[in-house]
Amino acid sequence: xxxxxxxxxxxxxxxxxxPGLLVSLGLxxxxxxxxxxxxxxxxxxxxxxxxLSPFVNVRFNVLPVAVVAVVLAAVAWFASRSRRGNAxxxxxxxxxxxxxxxxxxxxxxVISARVxxxxxxxxxxxxxxxxxxxxxxxxxxLDTGNxxxxxxxxMTGGGFYxxxxxAVATLVATTFGLDVxxxxxxxxxxxxxxxxxxxxxxxxxxxxxxxxAATISAGIACAxxxxxxxxxxxxxxxxxxxxxxxxxxxxxALAAAITRVSPGWxxxxxxxxxxxxLSLSGLVVAHPxxxxxxxxWTAPMTAVLAWKIIKQRRMNAQRLAKPLAAFIAYGLVFxxxxxxxxxxxxxxxxxxxxxxxxxxGEAIVFSPLDSPPAWLVAxxxxxxxxxxxxxxxxxxxxxxxxxxxxxxxxxxxxxxSRLRNLLTGVWYNDSFRIAALLPVVAVVLAAVxxxxxxxxxxxxxxxxxxxxxxxxxxxxxxxxRLPVRAAALVVIVAAAVYLGQLGAVDKEAEQASSKYxxxxxxxxxSSDELAVFKRLHNDVPQDAVLIGNPYTGASLSYALxxxxxxxxxxxxxxxxxxxEIYDHLGAVSQDPAVCKAVKSEHAYYVLDFGLLExxxxxxxxxxxxxxxxxxxxxxxxxxxxxxxxxxTACGAG
Length: 653
Description:
By secondary structure, the chain is mainly alpha-helical. The chain has helices at residues 6-26, 31-52, 62-79, 94-119, 131-144, 164-176, 180-207, 212-221, 230-234, 239-258, 270-286, 288-313, 317-340, 356-364, 377-390, 395-413, 418-424, 431-435, 438-455, 459-471, 477-500, 504-513, 527-534, 536-539, 557-561, 576-584, 592-601; strands spanning 545-547, 564-565, 605-608, 633-639, 642-647. The longest helix has 28 residues, at 180-207. The chain is elongated, with a radius of gyration of 27 Å.
């Protein structure tokens, strides 16, 4: 079970963190900041390596990634040599230095447990529509040695495809020699349980500060929301969104530093710009829609920066000319990207999910899509909203909350219209994709809320004073004070973790786990069909091409059975020859045109997985109906309703 792949999970975590860590250390970030920046930078390194590999005729594996990481780290070191000392070095007590690492470790444990619960077994896979493309794409990259976004679309007859996730999963698979489903699951654990918490903690610390309370609250909050990361492993399956959103907070943190809405100790110099450029290169290729989410976060930041500059320069026209030109340019770029960088209209067909009042209520309590309330995060996040209203320092965070609340209400509650498409078409007009962005806001607001409770209300200060006064007069109690406080903290944290897993997380884990179960009635690949895949090597030659209805999961013969399917995705390009087979295979014994197509496609084998399709409906081509009555084919393997036929009417394959 999972213990058997634990070394690979640990190895994958190091593999995927180290490239970014080298670069962040080269940029002279230190301590937890260097580690927490690593996920966003690593994705950038891997994307660059996967894109460049075909141009230098090198197979994509750990070697080009290591070379790119070392080169970028050297460039980073050279570019940041003038950085005085280390702006991020902070030498507090041991306790404060340990807190972010402890918070990240706690989130790692909790999220790992939930992801493992969701997947069930290392060899399980998502029984959803997009799983066909994602699993086959990893197999394709392993076979071709090419995981570039410029060419991986060739697998389906398409063009450019943002293959950041595909490159990351392929790197894990090729480094550790894992089967495709295991590699995908190991990658999912690292993305969800390592990348996401580190990125969230970096953002919380760079927005709120080094407060241990805010840091711990961010660590617990990022593991206590059903809308991410589990929702992206459930719906779709949207692995690219899982990766891109997991590193989104790191890119937001860098933008917050550059726009000066972060605390003064956070660096905002040339190395920060370089780190942002590398992180955004990874974010865009991981998923362009998440880059647009990052751009949306920058709008309130830029507004605050503009206000500060105007206030400092006191409306002096000459001194304001350059900043004003920069802000106008930012606005034009924002508008251009908003209009251009969006999926085609025929892919943005999703309709509303709820009414406006229902959507508004769900957004406010961070429990979208009929999820139970986030019992732990919602109350402190709402306190954070109040703190944003009261404090100018956090007002931009309140602006972000307002923007994403409006976006979720529009996509989930508004009828299909031009206005709805203008505002949410960037995210396919899909409630699920925008719902998965709400936790980023929630984690920051939770940290702000806890910080406000601890340091603005004075409540915890009074408790500490009361505790100290009761301890006075005893020679023994002062010596026990630290252990008692530590024990109390452990109890509070344990209670918070437990409460955070109730409601939305429980429901999402249970719901998502049903998508990974392999049983007789599984919607994509049943247990019988999987058994047939595992035996394909006995009867089907290595170079054979299999015909089948891709909606039934037959296309996964490539990723799961090591035999190529004629369509590697449900919506793959269909050649004229393949269409001839689809339409007229029933007449293969009488129609020479069919045999001509079979020979040209080298497609002498057919998978018949019945009529059960992943999304329901019936897309079975006419030529694949009633194969058991077709004299031109021969049954060579079967289990249950899953059958493999060989086309015998056209000679040897």
